[in-house]
Amino acid sequence: MVFQKFTNNSYSLLWLPSLLILLSSASVNGVEQKKFYIVFLGAHPVSREGSIESHLNILSAVKQSHVEAKESIVYSYTKSFNAFAAKLSEDEANKLSAMNEVLSVLSNKYRKLHTTRSWDFIGLPLTAKRKLKQESDTIVAILDTGITPEFRSFKDDGLGPPPAKWRGTCDKYVNFSGCNNKIVGAKYFKLDGRSESSDILSPIDVSGHGTHTASTAAGNLVPNASLFGLANGTARGAVPSARLAIYKVCWKEDGCADMDVLAGFEAAIDDGADVISVSLGGENSNYLQDSISIGAFHAMRKGIITVASAGNDGPTMATVENHAPWVVTVAASGIDRDFHSTVELGTRTNVSGEGVNTFSPKQKQYPLINGMDAARNSSSKDNAKFCAKGSLEPNKVKGKIVYCKFRTWSTEAVVKAVGGIGTIVEYDEFQDSPETFMAPATFVNRSTGQIITNYIQSTRSPSAVIHKSHEVKIPAPFVASFSSRGPNSGSQHVLKPDVTAPGISILASFTLRHSITSIEGDTQFSVFTLMSGTSMACPHISGIAAYVKSFHPNWTPAAIRSAIMTTAKPMSQKVNKEAEFAFGAGLVNPTRALNPGLIYDMDEFGYVQFLCHEGYNGSTLSILIGSPVNCTSLLPGIGHDAINYPSMQLSVKRNTESTIGVFRRRVTNVGPGPTMYNATIKSPKGVEITVKPTSLIFYHTLQKKNFKVVVKAKSMASMKIVSGSLIWRNPRYIVRSPIVIYSS
Ligand SMILES: *[C@@H]1O[C@H](CO)[C@@H](O)[C@H](O)[C@H]1NC(C)=O
Ligand SMILES: *[C@@H]1O[C@H](CO)[C@@H](O)[C@H](O)[C@H]1NC(C)=O
Ligand SMILES: *[C@@H]1O[C@H](CO)[C@@H](O)[C@H](O)[C@H]1NC(C)=O
Ligand SMILES: *[C@@H]1O[C@H](CO)[C@@H](O)[C@H](O)[C@H]1NC(C)=O
Ligand SMILES: *[C@@H]1O[C@H](CO)[C@@H](O)[C@H](O)[C@H]1NC(C)=O
Ligand SMILES: *[C@@H]1O[C@H](CO)[C@@H](O)[C@H](O)[C@H]1NC(C)=O
Ligand SMILES: *[C@@H]1O[C@H](CO)[C@@H](O)[C@H](O)[C@H]1NC(C)=O
Ligand SMILES: *[C@@H]1O[C@H](CO)[C@@H](O)[C@H](O)[C@H]1NC(C)=O
Ligand SMILES: *[C@@H]1O[C@H](CO)[C@@H](O)[C@H](O)[C@H]1NC(C)=O
Q1: Which residues, at least 6 apart from 393, have a Cβ–Cβ distance to it below 8 Å?
Q2: What CATH number should be reported for the domain holding residue 74?
Q3: Which numbered atom of ligand 1 lies nearest the CA of 620?
């Protein structure tokens, strides 16, 4: 058995700037000789007791004694998979991985974490049709930082007891008074045993991230929600009647440990969740070394769909995370709303800045100064231009608005700390995710900055005022610059991300345990707040997956994903030049996803064929399915990618005449029959795409039909992406698959 060593990078929740400061990847300190490992074993013994006993026996073989083994083991996974987590030296880990009984030893890494108007924007109005009974039988599991149970988003008015299939439990914990009929389960996992002074060993949410994602997926309707009047409206989740199961696996200081994430998956699967939502991630390319990929595979085997965020490392290419084909990978888009602040200069000229500024000015005008002119001394002038900490002379900025160039986030906190009344920051990059300020402030672009500096120079006593932000309408959708991009580092045959959902300035429930920016000195506390990140996009799709499931309780995870992808609204390469690598199949369209016409379905066996085709060693696949696979004896997956995926991707080799990909697909008619679908192909320049047959006739519902798509592409310049598509159309349905051709 190969010992699989991990780099010690940490995982994080996938959200953005200000709050990231507080959660930023606290990796394990390297002081300890012993680290945590997850040891995967073969098939399950017959009983849970038998499993635990066998874990101890195996571990005893590398420890001095049974007692020592007992002390070092921290968790036994006995339900979906057979594994244990324990504290080991590298030598012990090596010895274990050489044992026959042991499939694989993974070192425990720490991952990181990566909302009203958004529903109307994507077309899921308050009045959308619902199957309320089925919706209330649907359980969305959230693996995150916990929950704030007392908020209105999680009241259980009108909800009966959880569905009979629910096996989860909920105890009373510190600062957590227990569950209700909305939050039907709550657990936490902190297997490393390290206590954190800033977090609480309880499902209670200290950071606000988990509360935000849970309320986005399945929060109740809360009228008149806003952030100090901004983004006001009715806050709600996709499925307001669905239940929530909370698994706290991410912690304020340490982030999200693989062993906790796996324990969360195992519990959610065993408890009977329908959808698992994971707004967290970390770099990984191997599907057998990634806790989210492994957990999601076991969920899929039980018919549970896993939805995960794509990551916040865009717009750099090949940064997409959570890219296993059995996971729905979600990119973040902007909606048609942005927040601007008017800056009124003393000359009565108005200019406009961006960002979320909730403060209303108390005076008509304030004196205005350029940070450069407020330097402490001549040597701090360079830093004062950026209003860097320690560079400003308090006497010069007291009571004034200060103009600074951007260098780091939260410049306004520096200005406030030395007595400044407001901050105008010149910031010319990536203005598509508005920053929330802890004190009066706004971001202006370079040309506006020029107007302001010219004005400051042109008058003896310059003055200005920054008004509270207001909403403006902007063109949308577009994929956020921060949203991670393809291509998929795990497989060049699977297009990732899959689909796009709103993830910029989403209003949802938060926490009152700290201010909305969590920057020291911030006085803004709010039940609702605006957050941005693929973390916020993910629960939109988790909720929509639950919505689709409430209409089609028997659909497989692959079928639900297919419905969401083939009905998505196509987006444009004119807006995001990375095309499908930015937006996947496009912007989700929830009501159309209920009736996709055709689906690209797949079961566990389909994924195993794919993995064999990708070159995974059949014996290591037992991590996913509990016993070794003989890839040679398996029916080979067919075609270029050996997977029945709703999108197609062809990587073109450079310096070759042409590259050909033959994609084999099978669609299932989920609409009424008899019916006939005709194909429409869009081929980009330099690419020839054909489909055979060009018509599919179905006599009845659930009938399946095979077809093949041949993509022939000429050599392309490197880093070029072109997009085509295949559409199956009948008078009622449009079933669209993106086809991406790129050269790396
Ligand atoms: C697969 O793994 C087994 C067990 O480690 C090893 O014996 C075998 O050689 C591997 N096969 C391939 C094709 O790498
Ligand atoms: C949490 O519970 C502890 C113990 O009951 C209590 O002392 C503390 O004040 C509570 N903290 C919060 C933030 O509610
Ligand atoms: C709506 O919220 C605002 C601010 O939170 C409050 O002043 C107002 O009274 C509320 N309106 C209603 C109808 O509840
Ligand atoms: C938001 O508040 C404004 C001003 O109070 C009001 O005109 C508007 O109707 C509100 N919007 C919603 C969706 O409630
Ligand atoms: C500038 O903006 C303020 C606040 O919105 C507004 O009251 C004022 O009339 C505007 N002035 C001009 C000259 O447009
Ligand atoms: C700078 O911002 C102003 C105000 O929002 C806008 O009108 C202008 O087009 C922007 N300039 C550039 C170069 O983006
Ligand atoms: C200038 O200010 C900096 C702090 O920004 C300080 O460290 C430095 O000693 C000062 N230099 C002089 C000459 O006063
Ligand atoms: C796998 O299957 C092939 C073909 O059926 C067979 O020749 C081979 O012996 C099998 N390998 C193992 C390890 O069972
Ligand atoms: C599909 O193609 C057939 C044959 O070309 C044609 O008769 C039929 O009207 C087409 N159907 C649709 C929905 O376009």
Answers
A1: 374, 375, 376, 377, 418
A2: 3.30.70.80
A3: 2
Residues 687 and 733 both lie in one domain: yes
Q: Using the mean position of ligand 3's atoms as its centre, give its distance from the Cα of residue 223 in Å.
A: 9
Peptide linkage before 325 cis (omega within 30 of 0): no
Contact 112, 12 (CB under 8 A): yes
HSE-up of 228 (CA within 13 Å, CB side)? 17
Structure tokens at 238: 């996709």
Regarding whether 316 and 195 lie in a shared domain, the answer is yes
Quote the pLDDT of residue 627.
82
Same domain, 394 and 289: no
> Which parts of the chain register pLDDT below 70?
1-32, 115-123, 430
What's the CA gap between 216 and 495, in Å, rounded? 26
pLDDT of 119: 62
Indicate the helix (H) or strand (E) that contains 352: strand 350-354
Which CATH number covers residue 698? Answer: 2.60.40.2310
> What CATH number is associated with residue 502?
3.40.50.200
- For ligand 1, residues with CB inside 6 Å are 1, 617, 619
Task: Specify if 12 maps to a domain.
Answer: no
Task: Report the alpha-carbon distance of residue 403 to residue 681 in Å, rounded.
Answer: 54
Same domain, 487 and 515: yes
Does some domain include residue 541?
A: yes
pLDDT for 31: 40
How many domains, the chain? 4
Same domain, residue pair 171 and 257 = yes
- Residue 240: cis peptide before it, omega within 30 degrees of 0: no
Atom of ligand 1 nearest to the CA of 1: 5
Helix (H) or strand (E) holding 263: helix 258-271
> Domain residues for 94?
35-107
User: For residue 418, is it within any domain?
Assistant: yes
CA dist 323 → 186, 296, 318, 440, 534 (Å): 27, 11, 11, 40, 14
Q: CA-to-CA distance for 552 and 546, rounded, in angstroms?
A: 10
- 445 CA: nearest ligand 6 atom: 1
* Residue 7 confidence (pLDDT): 28
Q: Whose CA is nearest to atom 14 of ligand 8?
A: 630
In the residue annotation, 209 being an active-site residue is answered as yes
**Residue 616 within any structural domain of the chain:** no
Q: Which of 535, 542, 550, 743 is catalytic?
A: 535
Residue 43 and residue 179 share a domain: no
Q: Are residues 653 and 673 in the same domain?
A: yes
Count each helix (H run) and each strand (E run) in the chain, helices first.
19, 37
What φ, ψ does residue 132 adopt, rounded to 5°?
A: -65, -40
Domain boundary among 74, 107, 140: 107
The question of whether 144 is a catalytic residue gets the answer yes
Task: State whether residue 86 is helix, strand or coil.
Answer: strand
The pLDDT of residue 13 is 54
How many angstroms separate the alpha carbon of residue 451 from the centre of ligand 7? Answer: 31
The enclosing H or E element of 606 equals helix 604-613
Ligand 7, atom 10, lies closest to the CA of 377
Give residue 635's identity as a one-letter amino acid code: L
CATH number at residue 395: 3.50.30.30
Last residue of a domain, one of 472, 506, 521: 472
Tell me, in angstroms, the distance from the centre of ligand 9 to residue 640's CA. Answer: 29
Alpha-carbon distances of 710 from 372, 664, 665, 692, rounded to whole Å: 62, 9, 11, 8
* Centroid of ligand 7 to alpha carbon of 393 (angstroms): 10
Interatomic CA distance for residues 643 and 666, integer angstroms: 10
Q: What is the pTM (predicted TM-score) of this model?
A: 0.92
* Token couple for 29: 């300190």
pLDDT the model gives residue 17: 38
Per-residue pLDDT at 123? 66
Do 436 and 486 share a domain, yes or no?
A: no
Q: What is the residue with the minimal CA distance to atom 11 of ligand 9?
A: 678
